[in-house]
Amino acid sequence: MPARFCVLASGSSGNCAFLQVNGFGLLIDIGLGPRFVASRLATIGASWRDVHAAVLTHTHSDHWKDATLAHLKQMRLPLYCSPRHHEDLKKYGGRFTALLQEGLVRSFEANIPFDLPAGIQITPISVPHDAEPTFAFRLNGPPGLFGPQWSLGYASDLGEAREDLLTAFQGVSVLALEFNHCEHLERMSLRPKFLIDRVLGPLGHLSNDQASQAVQSIVQASDRGALRHLVQLHLSQDCNRPTLAAQHGKDVLAELGSSAKVITAQQFATSDVIPLEGDFARSRPIAVQPSA
Ligand SMILES: [Zn+2]
Ligand SMILES: [Zn+2]
After folding, report:
1. Could you report the per-residue pLDDT of 44-54, keeping only the tens digit for each?
2. What's the CA-to-centroid distance between 120 and ligand 2, angstroms?
3. By the 8 A CB rule, do 277 and 1 touch?
4. Neighbours of ion ligand 2 (CB under 5 A)
5. Relative to the alpha carbon of 233, which ligand is closest?
6. Domain boundaries, the chain
7. Cα 147 to ligand 1 centroid, rounded to whole Å
8. Which of 71, 129, 227, 240 lies 20 to 30 A from 15 at CA?
9. Which ligand minimizes its atom distance to the CA of 267?
């Protein structure tokens, strides 16, 4: 299979997604220990041998594990992160320094696209969250006739979906977006007030309603039929329900006349696998070349 994407785990107990393009494997976040990564990869017929790099959204502890940094070093796999992540990664564990010393840490900056093997181009986008800096990513596949063959928007922890993110995600064929909580369940929860305020605040997490609004903005600004899959990320165990989030996603897509499929990522199991081959290119009409 030339290109595929799935979520190995999503939620406050650990986040990790897997993108594989022409044999090149990328982990987005490494919030699972190496053995858990291996067992989730095994469910889709892959292993650590299929992983060639990792990219980090932010330094909250559900997005990276020190043991997995050690595993990256052992396997000589590069980690792409912001230079402004270094301090936290050094502070909470010893393995990052060793990865740095081995020359396995690569840097990225907001809004500056960088290339990975297999024709993948990644653009980091800053998002508001209480781990500064936090990034969403737009990942474009190899070039096709009318642009990238497919494109993936990935935003897992953010308090608000701001205009620059909505613009950056226009035209994506796969949108992986946080549907963290139901605002009502969050407010009615027995959590301490400061935690509720944090989640609902502009540096917290997206509610089902906020995420649905973001989906609406992105789909309305995109070519008809561009979006093929909506992947719901980082659902709260206490303050959301998979069926509730899925219904929000399906409702907003139905209102928009979109036939995109909804996949709700889970904490304790690998998601469905999304094939990415030619998704985007096939949604466009074939252009007829004028004769000379
Ligand atoms: Zn998180
Ligand atoms: Zn976070």
Report:
1. 999 999 999 99
2. 25
3. yes
4. 60, 157
5. 1
6. 3-278
7. 32
8. 227
9. 1
What average pLDDT does the segment 143-160 reach?
94
- Mean residue pLDDT of the chain comes to 94
Specify the pTM. 0.94
Query: Quick check: helix, strand or coil at residue 124?
Result: strand
Topology at the third CATH level for domain 3-278: Metallo-beta-lactamase; Chain A (3.60.15)
Cα distances (angstroms) measured from residue 145 to each of 123, 173, 219, 289: 21, 15, 22, 12
Q: What is the pLDDT of residues 178-197, one digit of tens each?
A: 999 999 999 999 999 999 99
Question: What is the side-by-side strand order in the sheet with 3-9?
Answer: 105-107, 79-81, 53-55, 24-28, 16-21, 3-9, 274-275
Residues 6+ apart with CB under 8 A from 74: none
Orientation of helix 66-75 relative to helix 34-42, angle to 10°: 70
At residue 278, does pLDDT exceed 60? Answer: yes
Ligand nearest to the CA of 159: 2
Expressed in angstroms and rounded, the spacing between residue 291 Cα and the centre of ligand 1 is 54
Q: 21 CA to middle of ligand 1, Å?
A: 25
Which pLDDT score, from 0 to 100, does residue 285 have?
A: 42
Considering every ligand atom shown, identify the ligand nearest to the alpha carbon of residue 60 and give its number: 2
Helical ranges in 136-231 per DSSP H: 163-168, 183-188, 193-200, 208-220
pLDDT number for residue 92: 78
With cut-offs at 50, 70 and 90, classify the pLDDT of residue 292.
very low
